[in-house]
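Progress against Task 2.4 (sequence-to-structure conversion) is shown through the following example record, which the project officer requested during the mid-term review.
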Amino acid sequence: MPYYSSLRYKIKDPKERARVIGNLRDLQKQLDADIPDKDTDKNLLLASWNIRDFGAPGTRRGFGYRSPETLYYIAEILSRFDFIAVQEVNELDELEEVIDILGRDWDYIATDVTDPSLGGNGERLTFVFDKRKLWFKNISGEIVLPSNMLISKALVETEEGKKLYSGKQFRRTPFLTRFQSGWFKFDICTVHLYYGAESGPALDERVDEIDRIAKYFGKRAKKALKDNRALILLGDFNIVHPDHKTMKALLDNGFTVPKKLGDPTNFSGNKYYDQIAFIADDKVIEYIDSDVDDPKHRNAGIVDIYKKLYRPKDWETYKQQMLASPNGKENEGDLKRYFKSWLTYQLSDHKPLWVRISTNSSAEYLDGLREKALEAAEH
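Structure tokens generated for the chain above:
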């Protein structure tokens, strides 16, 4: 990345800077081994990552501010992909610092903050992308449900005796855009859906949100496939398990989740919150699900962001940072335990997940033209 030189300005202490550079080198080696190399014209590396309270104003629930070193780690992880849907963005300051580290070839598109009165924690939804690999097709918007699809709806009698639907929009409004990479055209919608609770009406509302966005977005499938466009629905769905009704609400509306993304995506390793789902030509899913042992040639995966960063044995390194956070003083007697929560506000409590999609359809296109030319010649 062109802005590694800024390390000496952002991290002034030489000893600390040397430590951070060592961590970056270890992270680079891990990502080199775990993720395929980016290429120019054959494949698109597409990812989704919920970065916890990214750019949150104040001191992110008492856990303090992100350190400069963490922003370099985030930038290094993002740089391994061509296109990333980032959830849980609040203010844009940290995101813009990361974009600056990535360099001039990178850009982002973000929604406005969802009204906090809807219960969405003042979050934005964001797409970060490498301009060398994709181009924005000038279509974007936040999804607003029609009255007959509202969340947790109820029927209400009007003075005229007609029944109207009354209910809620999404807590955090899903964000839809259109992009193209090589020959691959796609409409992509990112979400951070309602969590609520693990049972009862709040869980029902979560299932409703998953069902409504999958149903609403999936209605575009027939036209999209006719126009050779894929539909990609991704983000933090707060899905409990592949066999849970939260996942059923997604799959029952025509979306397919690649088999390679079947592992947990949260920090604790017991939930399947994040997903990348498709309605696309069968060849797209077949390519992603191709059975390859070599990680460098796999087409989907989940990144263990804590394999080389903020490991349990590193907790003493961050004592002063933890003590400087508001919660740190309350946990001074057991900073080792506090470290397990604090580190999720530095990196995240979610892991990035990714897919590699073939974008070079030139051979198929030429074959199609040839067949049409032969048919015309026969007549």
